[in-house]
């Protein structure tokens, strides 16, 4: 399976990656979408195509929010499971590449796809967060985290944990002894390798620390960084709109994209909710259009409806759920 011939990485213009991502989604990802939907792993050929096109290393180049949203939407409109795995990798690559310490040495291999990464960043919330304890020479990671993607594909994970003084520490840990995975069994994109991941005294070397911040700084950054996940729903909505040849839905996707890009922190939950609700509406319209063929397991309509369902909850937060429930009349 060959990637598109044109490569943005040689031209040096970051914005060209959107064009390359859209072509790769059409030529490489979409033809496999139904097969990947039924598989338990994203094909290596998909990841190799992203590597060859330079898209794997996007986060290391400091792209704009617009570029990140458009590339994510393009990939999600081709194969959501592949987009999941790619997006998790970006969530590790960007902070590692920007880190001031020795962990930044991993960035070239991450950017090239020689090392695959995932993220474990939601387990700092709640009464029982993932915890990092012990002296610098003998740090250990304990606890568990839900919704960890790329299990079975990732070599390393960027992990956020709470240390003994209450700070949030992000680190890069190798996949290895002390980690136990329980498959999540998602309604869609199951090939993303999404699991609940437990950590039992996993050792963490001091040179693997990426950053240490206070909880309030972590919460502020988390609230400000939610736009990217909304792009996954834009990709699903856009695919259904194009399949329907619906000018109205294509326009609605463009409007939702614009609102997502323009949203400040206060407006972001509503903008994210609008993207997820639109994915459900567009996929439902396609199911109506496809009629009887759309109720067959593994059909285009079935896959997109389940993907829209999944994205109602993926990367969500209480404010996003509240805005979605309001939109749904609940």
Task: Give the C-alpha Rg.
Answer: 19 Å
- The computed structural class is alpha+beta
Mean pLDDT: 92
Reported by name, the CATH topology of the largest domain is Butyryl-Coa Dehydrogenase, subunit A, domain 1
The helix/strand order is HHHHHHHEEEEEEEEHHHHHH
> Would you identify the CATH architecture of the largest domain?
Orthogonal Bundle
Q: State the low-pLDDT regions, or none.
A: 1-13
Q: What's the main sheet like?
A: 4 strands, mixed
The assembly state of the depicted protein chains is single chain
How large is the share of residues in beta strands? Answer: 15-25%
What is the number of E strands? 8
Relative helix content: 40-55%
Span between N and C termini?
Answer: 46 Å
What strand line-up does the widest sheet have? 1-4-5-8
User: What is the CATH class of the largest domain?
Assistant: Mainly Alpha
How many helices? The count is 13
Tally of distinct domains? 3
């Amino acid at each position: 399976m060959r990637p598109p011939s044109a490569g943005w990485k040689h031209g040096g213009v970051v914005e060209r990656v959107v064009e390359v991502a859209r072509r790769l989604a059409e030529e490489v990802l979409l033809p496999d979408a139904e097969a990947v939907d039924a598989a338990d792993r994203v094909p290596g050929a998909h990841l190799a195509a992203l590597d060859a096109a330079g898209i794997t290393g996007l986060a290391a180049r400091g792209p704009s929010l617009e570029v990140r949203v458009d590339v994510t939407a393009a990939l999600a409109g081709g194969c959501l499971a592949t987009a999941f795995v790619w997006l998790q990798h970006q969530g590790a690559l960007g902070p590692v590449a920007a880190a001031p310490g020795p962990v930044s040495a991993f960035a070239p291999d991450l950017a090239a796809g020689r090392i695959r990464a995932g993220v474990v960043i939601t387990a700092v919330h709640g009464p029982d967060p993932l915890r990092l304890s012990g002296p610098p020479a003998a740090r250990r990671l304990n606890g568990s985290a839900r919704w960890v993607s790329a299990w079975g594909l990732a070599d390393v994970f960027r992990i956020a944990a709470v240390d003994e003084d209450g700070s949030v520490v992000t680190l890069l840990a190798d996949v290895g002894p002390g980690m136990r995975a329980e498959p999540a069994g998602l309604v869609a994109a199951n090939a993303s390798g999404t699991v609940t991941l437990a950590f039992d005294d996993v050792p963490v070397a001091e040179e693997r620390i990426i950053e240490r911040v206070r909880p309030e700084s972590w919460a502020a950054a988390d609230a400000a960084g939610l736009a990217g996940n909304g792009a996954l729903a834009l990709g699903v909505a856009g695919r259904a709109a194009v399949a329907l040849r619906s000018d109205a839905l294509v326009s609605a996707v463009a409007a939702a994209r614009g609102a997502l890009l323009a949203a400040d922190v206060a407006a972001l939950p509503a903008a994210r909710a609008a993207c997820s609700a639109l994915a459900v509406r567009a996929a439902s319209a396609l199911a109506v259009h496809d009629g009887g063929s759309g109720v067959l397991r593994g059909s285009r309509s079935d896959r997109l409806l389940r993907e829209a369902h999944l994205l109602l909850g993926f990367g969500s937060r209480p404010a996003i759920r509240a805005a979605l429930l309001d939109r749904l009349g609940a």
